[in-house]
Amino acid sequence: MKKEHKIILDLLEMYLEKNPSQRFGQALFNLNINEFKEITDPRNPNYDLRDIYGDADLDIAERIKNRLSLMESQKNK
User: How many CB atoms lie within 10 A of CB 64?
Assistant: First the structure.
């Protein structure tokens, strides 16, 4: 296992420990691991999944960290 894989798994584990009622798929979306394609035409929204195949592991870890920070800041409001 690469170091980046361990980082992602540790972040996911931490999140699921705090949110045990969430399903695994929900956690993937909530942490921005899987994402929807960007909507280019608001009159015709497309809710297809974005292909994350080419995303670097460190980019995914950074998305997770940013999402966790956002969730934490919203809790404190």
Answer: 23
Give the residue numbers spanning the domain of 58.
3-70
As given in the structure block, the two tokens for residue 66 are 């940013």
> Which residue has tokens 């894989």?
5
**Does residue 77 form part of some domain?**
no
- What is the average per-residue pLDDT within 46-63? 94
Indicate the pTM of the whole model: 0.85
What integer pLDDT is reported at residue 2 of this predicted model? 96
Residue 76 lies in a domain: no
Structure tokens, 37: 């394609």
- 49 within 8 A of 36, measured Cβ to Cβ: yes
Classify residue 33 by its DSSP letter. Answer: S
